[in-house]
């Protein structure tokens, strides 16, 4: 039988658990596909703490050491592979918890090697003596594991059935989607547009982008040789032409002329377009009405685009981070639910101010990171660096300005709003 080569995607920053009975070939698999320092083996840890990798009485100490190594490596965002049987739910959960503590994904690779081959290998092993009933018990644990692994919270579960699949499988480390450090710019980071299509066109024109239009005169793209626009999210809601903004930005992203991160308003729009119950407040009703006048095909593309938006980007070798509501340093280049929540909504105290707006924690004032963080979300009247962070939301839809930061020049370019499109709930902040 011909075996098709399996390509196993794992996160280039994150944890990989090998799963399999003793003799399944885990250590052999790991040695052929990962660098020695990437692999943390329970047997090796057992040897380090007891001088004997078969000394089962050293198991607790060995796993203590293994967890420490995994924790320190994941703190650095390094790809880390755990070579242990991982046949029991609790130890797997412990390892996933470490990955989650560092906001990194965890992937399982299961070696489901046939029992006859396991027993044959075990008999021939010089490095390990195993009772047959240990093997029998582990094989039973593996069946149980295979039944529940999909529901345990792994980002992916790859099961390799048989020795051929295991021998030929290729592991492909894939960078997290937020990791675009290879993009060096220069960039034009553009603040919250909120449906202000005319102002966006004017700003792009001022920045030197050449706009492209369709036969009906609608802007469908904008290009500046060598430069990339980066939208901080909140393209939609409150303003007069959210579909027009989406058409332009979606065209720019498709052409490689722009990147865009998700804002909280895109998030709500996705919920609404999927028919999930959500309050039609803060301009969402107007956006849905505007979109209702568009063909269904356009709405489908809008939904696909908004649902696919990444919550932040790390750019320029790690020197620039763009996130809608900003991002504290420990979350840069990480991928988890709480990273996404912070990037889209920021950290709030749970209280509201006298205008009914959430009270925000001043993450920027405590920011000490190396990367410049450029964000939007909270409209301000003054564009001002705070500890290497900059808010470029200058409340265009509230009659303020639409602002871009040229990076690395650190030059601010803006255009005034044509009018007040939406009354703010209270006065805009001053940064
Ligand atoms: N082996 C093999 N061909 C493979 C994989 C493994 O012949 N494709 C042999 C190895 O040479 C070794 C035995 O099978 O003698 C067990 O392989 P190993 O990779 O050590 O298995 P592990 O799953 O790591 O077993 P343990 O849990 O006991 O460490
Ligand atoms: Mg081994």
UniProtKB/TrEMBL annotation:
InterPro entries: Ap4A_hydrolase (IPR050126), Calcineurin-like_PHP (IPR004843), Metallo-depent_PP-like (IPR029052), MPP_PrpE-like (IPR041780), P-loop_NTPase (IPR027417). Residues 186-378 form the Calcineurin-like phosphoesterase domain. Gene3D superfamilies: 3.60.21.10, P-loop containing nucleotide triphosphate hydrolases. It comes from the Bacteria. This is AAA family ATPase. It comes from Thermobifida alba (Thermomonospora alba).
């Amino acid at each position: 039988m011909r075996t098709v080569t399996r390509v196993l995607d794992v996160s280039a920053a994150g944890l990989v658990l090998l799963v399999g009975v003793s003799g399944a070939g885990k250590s052999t698999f790991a040695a052929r596909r990962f660098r020695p320092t990437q692999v943390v083996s329970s047997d090796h840890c057992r040897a380090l703490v007891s001088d004997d990798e078969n000394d089962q009485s050293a198991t607790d100490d060995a796993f203590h050491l293994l967890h420490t190594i995994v924790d320190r490596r994941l703190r650095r965002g390094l790809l880390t592979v755990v070579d242990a049987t991982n046949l029991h739910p609790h130890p797997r959960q412990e390892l996933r918890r470490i990955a989650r503590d560092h906001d990194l994904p965890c992937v399982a690779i299961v070696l489901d090697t046939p029992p006859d081959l396991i027993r044959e290998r075990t008999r021939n092993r010089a490095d390990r003596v195993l009772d047959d009933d240990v093997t029998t018990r582990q094989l039973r644990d593996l069946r149980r594991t295979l039944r529940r692994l999909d529901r345990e919270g792994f980002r992916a579960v790859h099961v390799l059935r048989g020795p051929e699949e295991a021998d030929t499988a290729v592991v492909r480390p894939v960078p997290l989607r937020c990791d675009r450090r290879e993009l060096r710019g220069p960039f034009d980071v553009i603040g919250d547009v909120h449906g202000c299509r005319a102002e966006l066109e004017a700003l792009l024109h001022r920045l030197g982008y050449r706009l492209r239009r369709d036969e009906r005169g609608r802007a469908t793209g904008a290009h500046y040789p060598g430069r990339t626009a980066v939208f901080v999210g909140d393209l939609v809601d409150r303003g007069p032409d959210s579909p027009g903004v989406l058409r332009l930005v979606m065209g720019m992203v498709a052409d490689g002329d722009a990147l865009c991160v998700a804002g909280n308003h895109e998030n709500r729009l996705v919920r609404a377009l999927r028919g999930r119950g959500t309050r039609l407040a803060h301009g969402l009703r107007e956006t849905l009405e505007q979109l209702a006048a568009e063909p269904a095909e356009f709405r489908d593309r809008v939904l696909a685009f908004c649902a696919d938006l990444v919550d932040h980007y790390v750019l320029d070798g790690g020197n620039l981070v763009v996130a809608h509501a900003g991002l504290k340093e420990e979350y840069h280049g990480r991928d988890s639910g709480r990273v996404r929540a912070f990037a889209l909504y920021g950290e709030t105290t749970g209280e509201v101010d006298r205008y009914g707006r959430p009270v925000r924690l001043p993450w920027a004032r405590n920011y000490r990171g190396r990367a410049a963080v450029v964000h939007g979300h909270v409209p301000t009247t003054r564009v001002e660096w705070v500890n290497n962070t900059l808010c470029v939301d200058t409340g265009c839809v509230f009659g303020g300005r639409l602002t871009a930061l040229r990076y690395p020049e650190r030059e601010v370019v803006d255009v005034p709003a044509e009018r007040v499109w939406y009354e703010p709930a209270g006065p805009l902040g001053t940064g």
